Amino acid sequence: MKIEEMTSYRLVEKKKIEDLNSMSYLLEHKKSGARIALLSNDDENKVFYIGFRTPPEDSTGVAHILEHSVLEGSRDFPVKDPFIELAKGSLNTFLNAMTYPDKTVYPVASCNDKDFQNLMHVYLDAVFYPNIYKEPKIFEQEGWHYEMESPEDELSINGVVYNEMKGAFSSPDDVLEREITNILFPDTSYSNESGGDPEVIPDLTYEQFLDFHRKYYHPSNSYIYLYGNMDMAEKLEYLDEAYLSHFDRITVDSEIGVQAPFEACAEAGKFYPITESEPEEDNTYLTYNIVVGDSLDRERYIAFQILDYALCSAPGAPLKQALLDKGIGKDIYSYYESGIRQSYFTIVAKNANLDRKAEFVECIEENLRSLSQKGIDKKALRAGLNFYEFRYREADFGSYPAGLMYGLQVLDSWLYDDAKPFIHIEAGETYKKLREKAETSYFEDLIRECMLENTHKGILTLAPRKGLAEERDRILTEKLAALKESFGSEQIQEVVEETHALLEYQETPDSKEALATIPLLKRKDIRKEAEPLVNEIRKTGDTTVMYHDIFTNHISYFRFLFDVKQVPEELFPYIGILKSVLGYMDTENFTYGELFHEINMETGGITSVTNFFTNARNLSDCLVTFEMKAKTLEDNLPRTVQLVQEIMLKSKFDDGKRLYEILAELKSRLQSNLISSGHSVAASRAMSYFSRPAAIQEQVNGMPFYRLVADLEKNFDSRREDLQYKLEALVRCIFRPENLMLDYVGTEDHYEEFIALAGQVKEALYKEPVETKPFVIEPVKRNEGFLSASQVQYVCRAGNFINKGLAYTGALKVLKVMMSYEYLWQEIRVKGGAYGCMCAFGKSGDSYFVSYRDPNLKSTVEAYEKAADFIEAFDGDERTMTQYIIGAVSELDTPLNPAAKGLRGMSSYLTNQTYEDYQRERDELLGADVNTIRSLAAVIRAFMEDDCLCVVGNDNRLKEDKEMFDVLENLY
């Protein structure tokens, strides 16, 4: 049946979107009023989502808690956590749910037709018929509940979303973003925190929670999206018969309100917590925020991204540079938020001081006036346009399915106008128009109209305050103590009983009958063959070339790789600094601002990276590479290689002012990452206690690297000349012909051209003798606790099992799924209340358990220590084993874009792994049985024996348990 012939739907629009090689359909389900958007094409990575407009009326986080909760069992799937059952045993390429300020979205993706249908079924059943009405404990677990294990205990609050948001509110960057929407949209739902404010979450009642679902989770308020190569008519028929036809159209009041323009600029000052050891000076955020338009304006939607680039985001951009030159902040950045009803533009001076606020505003407005009158650099506008259009046409979203990213972008317009789902993904013509307008006064007019003459703006400051975290903890502790004091003995006993009842609910396994309702593929549905490697090793002279013959749609991807094994000890830690400055300093032929524009005018991007490759056949052998990687249209290959050579060999490090600007910004970005990715920090640091490769990696991009950057920034005047010397010495030590390898992804048509160009670069590399001495580092066990003002912890235990005489096996990928979605999930997240938990079992033997936004510390470590006992007692049936094996294969078989296929081939060669190795690993994975899994308890015991612990977390909490650590030190 054709879509046009389906009587259950009204076809609103059918149109070919040439840019995406897709046929688009916009439909309305006649009976229920559901909105449906389809993108039909030949992409096998199919995507489905159902979303709802969910404007929050308060900051209790009801939309967020509901997003978690509807996936905790439903009519057709009466298990406690269908989401996790799918994660364990689906071939999905994406499986998640997201709460935004004004919408909640439930997306899935898969390349397997049967799996895709199963995912659709589970998600549709979850949103329309969740078990939340039958089981209040779902709300208590995912949202919040009072907790006391005995009448003598202190009263406390626990819950997954509650703890997740305590972590989010610990990040000043997250707090800043939240406060910006508050100041710009005080009379709309955007002034509320859809994720939930931890201080307000406990105000949410179970009945209010159910009412939110009753009101918003109806097809009349839904947005349904399908993308990829599938029988769209068949999917529409299923949607109608299984779900939509069971609902009648209703009116749902969910329209996102529009904030009336301000008569005058608003101002607000807020605070964020820091520890006693952190400085208050140079630690304030100054922000200038402007509501610049409507998200339905397809031209401005892109135009303000270009303005963002030209005004502030590009190195040397006029607004950024003016603020830096005046010393107003050390990290200047801007961003354009286009994913809500009224888009806004924000300029931030981070690491500033409150007493510079007036000067900050004056500097911005003075420069905007000048730019509107004298004009914006046309090359900057052209570079910005090329940068964003290249990204649009390349459509490289990393590991995320392209259809998912298009689908989420569709909601940037569809949520606010039922007739306009595709205006922002159909952007080719918009770029063409903007290229023409860039040669006129269009962008200058935008500055004048939307920024200078616009009074709908807000000046927000976010300043540090010592003791704020402790004050909040004290207020909560006193509040809970007073609440317990007000309870009678019966109420106290009721809380105790409810605490135990929730724990019993969490520990009671689902019945086999309930688990059997979760759809599961058969083992025969799994491909037995490993993904082939696209890799050919060639030689040009004495230089190794890794060539990957892949169709790339006329884009060349290449790398110049340099082995850094001969870099001496005194220079090695500065490799990370070199990586951060190359491409951002003046060269012989360009200022750094001109260079950045030239890169974006002529290429798809040039970046320097470091990589670490452990030899699979000699685990003590670790190759460290410094790489210049680039992507470009094939016709621009000569110019791109020329620019790479300019950056490598002609960069100048004598501009002290510019060096300091880069260091100060780098320190700021590293600090943000330390708290937002505390789990990664803890895991990397813990592995460095016993693993030489991990210890080397720490020197280049871990905690020692952050300490080096912070020290250089603090003592720059006295260390400037030494830093300049080390950077100059490094390029002469690294960029040498004997260190060089090449990597090229593309077709034969342009391979020889690349080799010829690379030969010219090789000829220009440094050849004069330099002092070389391999850098050697011996891991040292430190068991550190890093103290911060965070309200949660990131707890890692790590070790190595190969050092104990055990071998790596592909079955460990099955164990990873079991630990992540069974034992750790149950103990750390469900019962412990942490937002997340992860594990890894590396081919080198390096392994870890780590928690994310965890309210606990000791109990988490205790759970880790019991993991081997759980695995040793594992007794799964054939269905359970099949489920875990499918989940493990899903991680292996994620679809790869051309660049990622090339990277896989390159990494395989540099780690000395062959296709036969991957096939053996896959065979071991597919052949795993119950006895195999039980035997892997020895792997857990072996790595846990190393007793390597690292925790990033609340300073008071870590000090309370100081006996667990060898070293306690401040995170910053």
Descriptive account of the structure:
Strands 1, 2, 3, 4, 5, 6, 7 and 10 form an eight-stranded mixed β-sheet that branches. Strands 16-17-21-18-20-19 form a six-stranded mixed β-sheet, with helices on both faces. Helices cover 45% and strands 20% of the residues. The chain is an alpha+beta fold and 972 residues long. Helix 10 runs antiparallel to helix 11 and helix 28 packs across helix 31 (878-892). The termini are far apart. The radius of gyration is 28 Å and the shape is globular. Strand 13 and strand 14 form a beta hairpin. The chain is built from 36 helices and 27 strands. The relative contact order is 0.11.
Could you give a short description of this structure?
The protein is an alpha+beta fold and 972 residues long. The chain has 36 helices and 27 strands.
Q: What order do the helices and strands come in, and which of them pair?
A:
Elements: E1 9-17, E2 22-29, E3 35-40, E4 46-53, H1 62-69, H2 82-89, E5 92-95, E6 98-99, E7 103-110, H3 113-128, H4 136-142, E8 145-147, E9 156-158, H5 160-168, H6 172-184, H7 206-216, E10 222-228, H8 232-242, E11 266-274, E12 284-294, H9 298-313, H10 318-325, E13 331-337, E14 342-352, H11 357-374, H12 378-394, H13 402-414, H14 428-437, H15 442-452, E15 457-466, H16 468-486, H17 489-507, H18 512-515, E16 536-540, E17 543-549, E18 555-563, H19 575-581, H20 592-602, E19 605-614, E20 622-633, H21 637-650, H22 656-676, H23 678-687, H24 692-701, H25 703-714, H26 716-734, E21 740-746, H27 748-764, E22 784-788, E23 794-800, H28 811-831, E24 836-841, E25 846-852, H29 858-865, H30 867-872, H31 878-892, H32 898-910, H33 915-926, H34 930-935, H35 937-945, E26 948-954, H36 955-960, E27 967-970
Parallel strand pairs: 3-10, 11-15, 17-21, 22-26, 22-27
Antiparallel strand pairs: 1-2, 2-3, 4-7, 4-10, 5-7, 6-7, 8-9, 12-14, 12-15, 13-14, 16-17, 18-20, 18-21, 19-20, 23-25, 23-26, 24-25
Helix pairs in contact: 1-7, 2-28, 2-31, 9-10, 9-12, 9-14, 10-11, 11-15, 12-20, 21-27, 22-23, 22-25, 24-25, 25-26, 28-31, 28-33
